[in-house]
Please model this.
Amino acid sequence: MSEPILSARDIVAGYVRGLPIVHGVSVDVAPGEIVTIVGPNGAGKSTLLKAIAGLVVFESGTVTFAGRDVSGHPAHEMVKSGVGFVPQTGNIFTNLSIQENLIVGAHTVSRADLRLRLQRAYEHFPVLAERRASAGRVLSGGQRQMLAVARALMTDPKAIMLDEPTAGLSPKVVADVFADLRRLTELNVAVLMVEQNAKAAIRISNRAYVLTEGRNYIAGTPDELLNDPAIAEAFLGGRRAAKASGAA
Amino acid sequence: MIGQAIADGILTGAIIALGAIGISLSLQILRFANFGHGDILTLGAYSALTFTAVATAGVPIGPVSFGWQFLVAILIAAIVAGSAAILIDAIVYNRLRSRNAHRLTMIFASFGVALVLRNLVLLIWGPDVHYYSRELQIAVEILPNVRVMPDQIVVLGLTFAVVIFFYLVLRLTRIGMAMRAMAESPTLAGICGVEIRKMIRIAWFIAGALAAMAGTFLGLTVQLRPEMGFNLLLAVFAAAILGGSGSLFGAVIGGLLVGLAENLSVLVVPAGYKTAMPFLLLMLVLYIRPYGLFGTPERH
Model:
């Protein structure tokens, strides 16, 4: 792994001060790398992303981005620093048109750059260009996810965090979303995501972290994690192992 | 008779609509029912009075009762009331918000703000009735048996100009889009880089400025009294809820309907029941559409 651009160290965070959900988690992401965080429900995966994004109570730890300390910065400052975030639910404005969603996504972008960014977004996601005047609420699940990613990319982030980007999507659309994320890494964007769809996500990742009960459990490359039967059994659905033992 | 009632209803309704836009904004962006809004309206009206007391309302232009000085007075009133709204937010509501106060706490605080403002107006300007201008106006017959004052026509024109301007700002400017985005989801707006506190200040300024305009228009077409805003408040709330809280278009239509309901009702029921009519209408509408005429059901 090259020098990380986004680095979180010993993060303690939660929704209520004094009642943390994340107890000292550390993660790193380097430019052009996809890093996935997996783990059982309640492991604090989403809370960790929200803590970095400046959306929950940040109790202690440090977040550095491109060499700058951005620990506990509010959401609108994180965006300005260059960290984009796509939440799991409510990640588009349903009452705004697609174009308006993208313009609000580019709130920190200068007027001169806005036109170019819109043009680029429509080139990347032609489906959005066709429906630019439609309200967000009429989009399908996959299109919403596409718009949410396109919206987060409007600021030209150097790192993007996604909270379960494939939740509730059909397998075909899941593959499209993952392909879009891979394309981002070609632009040297650092991608940090949380996924329930753990195996598929780890396969397209450079590295993955497993969290349990708000703590780092193990980290490794896709090969290391997918080929470890204990990890597969405990955290990755373990279907293959279960099937094998069932057949025997 | 009906024609006159409709004309009066539209004129009253336009003023109520201006107030309802502010209520609608605070419901959507600030997320509480602001009972201090009526007294911001009064403060605006009296700020204009201070200006006209010094500079006069000006030499009447044509048939209206005021000159260009009064237009400056409206502008000053809008700035004073808008700034006062921001100041009140900094002193009262922002403190409550930062302590995660319950919505009801905010509502009760706004009652307190209302009382303070009303008494402040009473203290500074006294309990007497005031007028911007003592010029006599002759009503003009715009349709057979429908007479309106020239001032009322100007007020109606100005109201619609302001509403259209505000609509265009919300639709076409980046600030307007950010405000609409924040109304839907403050969290997501923050993730997009929208600074929530700045947007809240802008929302307060707009609500205060529009209330001041409603106040000066009410003062111009009726009179100025310290309780003028408070007395209008329930009709303003009825309009905002009727239209569907959070919908600009709804607030305007709600305002007009409330104005019409009040004025048309006197044709069939004693005038004493006039102020109850908007609420009867409100109950009827909410029975059929609980989220108002132009509102959308709230999702949880």
Q: What stands out?
A: Chain A has one domain: 6-90+157-247. The interface with chain B takes residues 53-55, 74-76, 79-80, 85, 87, 90-96, 100, 103-105, 107-108, 111, 151-152, 155 of chain A (CB under 8 Å). The longest helix of chain A spans residues 171-186.
